[in-house]
Specification:
The complex is a heterodimer. Chain A is mainly alpha-helical. Chain A has a domain of about 190 residues. Helix content of chain A is about 70%, strand content about 5%. Chain A is built from eleven helices and two strands; from the N terminus they run H-H-H-H-E-E-H-H-H-H-H-H-H. The longest helix of chain A is centred in the middle third of the chain and has 27 residues. By secondary structure, chain B is α/β, with parallel strands linked by helices. Chain B has a single domain, classed as 3-Layer(aba) Sandwich (Rossmann fold). Helices cover about 40% and strands about 25% of the residues of chain B. Chain B has ten helices and ten strands. The radius of gyration of chain B is 17 Å and the shape is globular. The termini of chain B are far apart. Classes of the chains: A mainly alpha, B alpha/beta.
Chain lengths: ~280, ~240
């Protein structure tokens, strides 16, 4: 899901938003804060935190990227790395740098219970919840992009910003929506991962961000279905790698996959071969 | 007066592309802007559309200044542009391209009517409606670009080099269509390198040279003008 966020933003404004991993981290922290400080139930905190991440995404765009829209892409890229570091440190100041446990008592009790079990594999309701939310979000996202007026505008902005403006699309607003959507998805991912592994820390976005980036590259950056598939493939590759080689290699596999993809199929699985043409005038 | 440019000066990057352009367009006219490469024709249209902002001078639409108004708001006001090189969305289908033309409209019935009208004007687009824009031929893309602009029901249509890269037979039919669109009530400001053709199909013309208006007259007079003949008609 983080990979999808990356790829969406890249697809629309050709920016690798390195601060996206931090939105994921913020999602987890927001949720925990809502649960432990305000005592909100898990589901409410989940959606509220997604909304906050959407807002963070938009703010990030307005504060950091919008002033650089006409500048060289490298400037925006460096800003993205800067924002990533800034957000990490901000989180450390607010929530402290030590890993925190996820308030498990807030999770619905049946999450622990086994939902399905076949041939020795037990899946809990929590597994199913994660799986279900992911599927719903991916399908929903695809529908939004494919069917809605807003999705059409997003694709138009991705293909030609000047022309999009000439058909009456408010380009900046569409970009904001994209950041909001990517932020909400990233936030949801952050909450689920933090709850699943029962831990969250300010730098959790970094590794996750890099892996998601690897998944997006594998799928072909800019392609949403590619990012979805890339994420699954990478996850499976990591699990097998950890199982058959050594769990020490787990993180290395993402990087290895990324390097192999860049060398042999730079366009990724679903990527389009980019022509060296400048899109904007 | 529908549109009036008053001493407009615009920079394109660091280049002073327009050095004080004054143009007037009356409701119902076809006005053409002719001139060579780099004379500032496209910059003029981009300035009207709000993609570029003039450093000096004024652009008045229905008596109201539209300088520094966002491009999408200018479309909302009724000015649509078919830019040079067509700029259709290659990865969107023909239908989606047309839908985007009507992006700001909410009148569902009107949009439906306009689809019908456009498919009457360009029957080939109906056949191709499920294809990606990028798979169309050059002529079909030009039709799509014009059709997309018409979907916004503009009062003023800006056309940038509609003949560019098209076979002669297609060029004639495109211009015939432009005349039809005008007869149905849309005012047109046309930019062309093909001066002969542009002057034949328009009421009035401006000759633009290195960012300045060199000549302004009715099209029939311009066709007879010695200077124009020599420089642009190749006689």
């Amino acid at each position: 899901m983080i990979a999808v966020g990356y790829t969406m933003i890249y697809g629309v404004i050709l920016l690798i938003n390195f601060a996206h991993g931090e939105i994921y981290m913020l999602g987890a922290f927001f949720a925990v804060t809502f649960i432990s400080l305000l005592g909100l139930p898990f589901y409410v905190a989940f959606f509220l935190s997604m909304a906050c991440c959407a807002i963070c995404g938009v703010l990030l765009d307005i504060v950091a990227y919008r002033p650089l829209r006409q500048s060289p892409r490298l400037a925006a890229l460096i800003t993205a790395i800067g924002m990533s570091i800034f957000l990490q440190n901000l989180a450390m100041v607010i929530w402290g740098s030590r890993p925190k446990p996820f308030p498990n008592e807030a999770l619905p009790a049946y999450f622990e219970k086994t939902a399905v079990s076949f041939s020795g594999v037990n899946l809990s309701w929590f597994h199913l919840f994660i799986f279900g939310v992911t599927i719903v979000m991916m399908v929903g996202l695809n529908l939004i992009i494919k069917k809605t007026r807003w999705g059409k505008a997003m694709r138009a902005v991705a293909q030609n910003q000047t022309m999009a403006a000439l058909t009456g699309i408010n380009v900046n607003r569409v970009i904001s929506y994209t950041f909001a959507l990517a932020g909400a998805l990233g936030g949801a991912a952050g909450i689920m991962v933090a709850a699943f592994y029962n831990s969250l820390y300010p730098t959790m976005g970094y590794v996750a961000g890099v892996k998601a980036f690897a998944a997006a590259v594998l799928g072909g950056i800019g392609s949403v279905p590619g990012a979805m598939l890339g994420g699954v493939v990478l996850g499976v590759a990591e699990a097998f790698g950890a199982g058959y080689l050594s769990s020490l290699y787990r993180d290395g596999i993402s990087y290895a996959v990324m390097i192999i993809v860049i060398i042999f199929i730079p366009a990724g699985l679903f990527g389009k071969v980019l022509k060296e043409t400048k899109k904007s005038m | 007066m529908l549109l009036k440019l008053d001493n407009v000066k615009t920079y394109y990057g660091n280049i002073r592309a327009l050095k004080g352009i004054s143009i007037e367009v009356e409701e119902g006219e076809i006005v053409c802007l002719i001139g060579g490469n780099g004379a500032g024709k496209s910059t003029t249209l981009m300035t009207i559309s709000g993609v570029l902002t003039p450093v000096e001078g004024n652009v008045l639409y229905q008596g109201q200044s539209i300088v520094a108004v966002r491009p999408d708001n200018i479309v909302q006001m009724g000015i649509c542009q078919v830019p040079e090189g067509r700029m259709i969305f290659p990865l969107l289908t023909v239908m989606e391209n047309l839908d985007l033309g009507a992006y700001l409209r909410k009148d569902k019935n009107g949009i439906k009517e306009d689809f019908e009208r456009i498919f009457r004007l360009f029957p080939v687009l109906r056949e191709r409606r499920k294809q990606h824009g990028g798979t169309l031929s050059g002529g079909e893309q030009q039709m799509l670009a014009i059709a997309r602009a018409l979907m916004a029901r503009p009062r003023l249509l800006l056309l940038d080099e509609p003949s560019l890269g098209l076979a002669p037979i297609l060029v004639d039919s495109i211009f015939e269509t432009i005349r039809q669109i005008n007869e149905q009530g849309t005012t047109i400001l046309l930019v062309e390198q093909n001066a002969q053709l542009a002057l034949q199909f328009s009421h009035r013309g401006y000759v633009i040279e290195t960012g300045e208006i060199a000549l302004a007259d009715s099209s029939t007079e311009l066709l007879k003008n010695e200077q124009v003949k020599k420089a642009y008609l190749g006689e």
